[in-house]
Amino acid sequence: MTEAASPAPAAPPSPPAGLRVTALAGGVGGARFLRGLLAALRSASAPDLRAAEVTVVGNTADDITLHGLRVCPDLDSVMYTLGGGIDDERGWGRSDETSGVADELAAYGQQPTWFTLGDKDIATHLVRTRLLREGLPLSEVTARLCERWRPGVRLLPMTDDVVETHVDLAPVDPAAHAGEAGGRRVHFQEWWVRLHAKVPALRIEPLGAAAARPAPGVLEALSDADVVVLPPSNPVVSIGTILQVPGVRDALRATTAPVVGVSPVIGGAPVRGMADACLAALGVPSTAEAVAGLYADFLDGWLVAEADAFEPGGAHGGRLRVLPRPLLMSGPDATAALARAALDLGLALSPAGASRT
Amino acid sequence: MTEAASPAPAAPPSPPAGLRVTALAGGVGGARFLRGLLAALRSASAPDLRAAEVTVVGNTADDITLHGLRVCPDLDSVMYTLGGGIDDERGWGRSDETSGVADELAAYGQQPTWFTLGDKDIATHLVRTRLLREGLPLSEVTARLCERWRPGVRLLPMTDDVVETHVDLAPVDPAAHAGEAGGRRVHFQEWWVRLHAKVPALRIEPLGAAAARPAPGVLEALSDADVVVLPPSNPVVSIGTILQVPGVRDALRATTAPVVGVSPVIGGAPVRGMADACLAALGVPSTAEAVAGLYADFLDGWLVAEADAFEPGGAHGGRLRVLPRPLLMSGPDATAALARAALDLGLALSPAGASRT
Fold it and tell me: What does UniProt give as the signal peptide span (chains A, B) (predicted)?
C-alpha cells in the first residue's frame, strides 16, 4: 500500500540496488506465477530488475501431518517449481515420481489413502520432520531444504507456528458424495483432496492463526519491499490465511511499497483450483471485483481479465488501479508477461519506481 | 535347559495340544532357519507338531534410528522372511525394492548414506515410528505390523526398551579402511554395514541392555516352552544381546524345556555374516565348541558340522548332547531338514517328548 509517502531519495548511481520484491503465495498458481516473475526479472533490461531480490511469504495453513510426516504442500510447490523439481503436468509434487512407499502404506491399511505421497516427495518430508523434531523452526528447515533447490527466492513460511485450516462441512446426501454425510469438521486437505471441495463449506478456519507469530523476516519483507505482489493464489485458503497471521495485514497497510495483485478469477470462475467453493463459504461472489474487495484496505493495483474490468468502489478509498490484462498462464511466456505486467503496475504506482520500468 | 524334571503327565488324547516351540533369533540366518522350522512343522506327521505354536524372541539390539525412522532390522528380517516379503537373494529387505526415497535423501546430503532404506521398507518404518510416537510399546507395534505379514509365529522383541549395540573400534590405518581411523565408538550398524566389521572391535556393548526389561511374554515363552531352539544366529550381537536382557538367561537356565542350538560356525568360519569378528572381540575362538561354551549354562543339545564334533567339557556339566548334522542351509529342503534335526534333538532330550517324534 502506498500512502502519503514522502518522495524517495534518488537511487545511488552504482552499483544498482536490486529491487526488493515480496510476494505472498499459495501453491500451484502462486508457484507458476513466481516462476514467470523470476523469468521476467532475469530478462529485464533495467539492472535493478535483473538484480532483484524476491522474498516469498508462503502459506502454511494447508500443512498436514500424514503418517507422522510433516507435509507443507504450498512451500514445497514453490520450492519444487522454482527449483526445477516440480511435476509440471500436475503442478504439484515431484517429476518422475513413484509410489513405492504409498503402495506399501496402503497394504498396511494406513489411513488416509486419499492423499498420496510420492517417494521423492517423502524424502523432503523426512528431512523436514526430522529437523522439526530436533527443534528447528520451520523457517530454518525451509531454508535448509532450499539449500538444495536454490529456488532463486528467499522462501519464508508465513509463520513457524502450526496453523491448519479446517472446514465445517454442510450436511449432504451421502449417496451423492461418496458416502460423505457432511455435518462435521475436516482438515482442509480432506475437503480439498478427498472431497474435491464439492461438499459445501459452512466455515473455513485456519486453526492456530490467531495465536501465530509471523516467521522471522516476514514483516520486514513487507515493510522494506519496493513492490509487494499477490499472485493469483486462492484468496481464502492461501492469501487469506497468510493475512490472518497477526501483523501481516497491518504490515501490508503500512508499507510504502505498492501492493499489486493478479485476480485468481476470470469471468466468474477460478482459473485453477476451487477458489469459488472457498469464496462461497465467505459469502463472497466469485468475481475479480469481489476478490479485490477482500484486499480493499491495502491493495493498490489489480490485474483483471478484460471482461472483468470494474470501477473501484469507495472501499478502496480511490486508491485502487484496475488494469485489464491477459491473465491466463498458458505457458512460460504468457506467465512471464503477466508477472511483468504486475511488476510494471507496481513500479508505476511506486513514488520512486516509475523511472525503473 | 532340562533339569531334574518330574515325569510329565500323559498328553490328553484329543485335540492334541500343539507343541510349544520358542526360538531366539537374529536376522538373516535366524529368519531362514525359522522358515525351515515352520516348513518342517507343517509337513510333520505328528499332530502336535503340525499344530505347533512357535514364539520367536527377536534381537532388537541392532535397531537404529535413521532419518527419524525407527528401524528394527532383525525383527523385520524375520517378519518379511516368514511373511513372504523378503528379498531372498540378499536375505534382508523387501523383494522388488526401489530406492526413490534414499536417492533423494542423498541428494539432500542426508547422512548416513551407507545404510540404504528401500521404499517398501520405509513404509514399515513409517508405520512403526508413528505408532511408537503414539506411545505403543515395540511389542505391540510389532504385533500390528505382523497383522499384515502373518508370519505364522508369534514375534516378540526381546524388550520394549531401547537397546543399541555400540562398538569400540581399534585404531587402524585410515588408508587401509576407507578413511576410517578407528579409535572411536560407533553404532553397531556403522561397524557392520559401513566398515563390514573389518576394523577390529575392541568391545561390543549393547547399550541399555542392563536396564532393559524383557518384553511381555518373553520369559513366559521360555519357561512354558516344550522346546527352546537357538538358530545359527550370531552368538554375540544377536543371541548374545538377547541373553543380556535381565531375566532371559535365568529363564533359559530354569526352563524344563530342552534348549537346543545350531552352530553358526562351520569348520572355524561363520556360515554367513561376520560372527568371527564379533567372537574375536570377546576373545572367543570361532569354533562350534567355543560358541557352545557361551551357552554352557543352559544348552542341552548342539548341532554341529561333522568336522566340528567335539566331546563336551566340564563346563556343560555332562548335560550337552553334541550331534553332527549337515548345517548348510543351502535351500528350503536342507533348511527344513536342519530345523527338523534340531527339533528332533530337542524332543529326544525332553522328558515327555521322545514319543512325539
Answer: none
